[in-house]
Amino acid sequence: MIKDYRILFILALAGFVLLGASLFKAFDQDFTKHQKNYYKQLDVEDYTVEIKQVNVKTPGKVLIDRCQSCHIGASNPDAAGFEPPLAAHPPIVPGVEKDPHDFAKIGCVVCHDGSGRDLDIHAAHGELHGWPAPLLKGEIAQANCVRCHAMEDGTLAGAEHYVKGQELFLEKACWGCHTIAGISSSSQAPELTDAGGKFSFDYLVESMVDPSANIANSKMPTFGWVHDEETVAAIATYLKGQQKDRLRSADSAPIGYIKPKSDLARIDSPSVAAGRSLFAGAPYEGSVAKGGCVNCHAIRNSDGDLAGGNIGPELTWTIRSRGSKYVKEHIVNSRSHVADSIMPTFKDYNDAELESLVSYLSTLDYKLGSKTDGPKLYDTYCVSCHGEDLNGEGKIAAMLDPLPRDFSKYQFVASYDKRFKDSIRDGVKGTAMPAWKDIMSDQQIETLVGFIKDKSLSGHDGFRRMEVTLPAIGDKERQDYRNKGLVVEAGNPEDGHEAFQKFCTSCHGKLANGKGPNAYDLEHPLPRNLINAAFMNQAAVNDARLYESILLGVAGTPMPAHDHLSDQTILDIIAFIRANTTEEAK
């Protein structure tokens, strides 16, 4: 019996110790120290230490905010000179006699995020691992202004950093790939309408500076401006403000809530000046314009100085090489010309805006002199795609599909002399390779080809490719033992489909789009996309060329010879390929 009392006594004593420890911890928390210090500095003797709680009503829930248990002087002008966390909050709206933000009503979390329920500093500031809304400090907190405020005209006093981010989102052409409801409508990249609700500020910054940091196979390029911390921070602040869930309804918000939209300029009358503004993403006639081509594309001035991005092809000669009609169509839908182009579609542009861009690009007239040597021609016209070492790995090559030709493979250079020159002169449809006949003279093309051949073939022994001809239908001289001695007939697409699935899909894929299972392990150049109609239907890609490429392979590429196939089988495969790229097939 006595033993039982002893156990009860020990348990009771332990309970009192734990209770005392809990009470001591409660009275020894950070907020109690801060409040005692606060009242001491104000020379207030009669006060009560308590949890300061604000209940912020939001649609469907009440937001608990206990931040002012520590930040007790936030609304007190007499605490302006105190050290944090006791100091008065600095004015949010500059230049007003009385700031309209009443922290006794709106609390702190509405603007700064964090975890308003917690009293521990690390938890309250959202520093615990996995907390979705870490504390936003300084100008970054402007991301949350749109939770309450309408921004019909794209401006808001006290939210200048956010507004700057919105302008940069347009200027840097982010809108071309990413959708934000009310701002842009592209489907090229992930939608950002709820970016702030899904991602932290640090995540957004990291995704811009190093796109592959969070998504290993991200196709987003690394832009030159990501090294400017102020630019990145402003855009990230704007994106952090994109949240579908708002803390207030339109009725209870201070001035109502309307989806923010920028005061965008729309061009009604085409002009070179308007095109220049669109290209640069600069304001036009005082308003922000949707543009920013210069973030991806470079151009040269009259002295040949290059300026702009290194993501897409240089546009100095695009009107001369492509023509106005092509350029307009390409802006609206680049895949109408290059099947696998990564360039976003700019369908929002009206006719006047397209004409303005073309007018501006038409003013770019720089070109080299007639006696320019091969190295200079190559460095000016070719190096950005084909690379300094001729290996097809120029600074913009990774963003092109198909990839630029690798001229360091001397077998290719030595095998296709006429085709090589024709490709430079007339361009290669369905690719980023433009026609240079209106920019370079025939002599310059000869000089350029000579330079490439000399550099590619230096140090290699001579290479000679055997010549073959396309078999004529019914030609008795082309009877083939592999075809049981029968003369060849016109290719049969159905038989060709069967042969293609058997011999070609490992590289070219079942859909003939160049994305077979082996394609990802091959070195550049990668398998050809055989359903790229723009490429396949050009005059240079005739049946004779396809026959030669299948029978002998393509020199300097992973495409092997298929000389084990009969002429009839090859013609059947060609017929199948053609059936996929005719106007009827499209």
Automatic annotation (TrEMBL):
Domain Cytochrome c residue range list: 160-243, 270-365, 369-456, 491-581
Transmembrane segments: none
UniProt-listed InterPro entries: Cyt_c-like_dom, Cyt_c-like_dom_sf, Cytochrome_c550/c551-like, Multihaem_cyt_sf
Lineage top rank: taxon: Bacteria
Gene Ontology MF, one: metal ion binding
Keywords: Electron transport, Heme, Iron, Metal-binding, Transport
PANTHER family, A to Z: CYTOCHROME C-553-LIKE (PTHR37823:SF1)
Name of the protein in its database record: Cytochrome c domain-containing protein
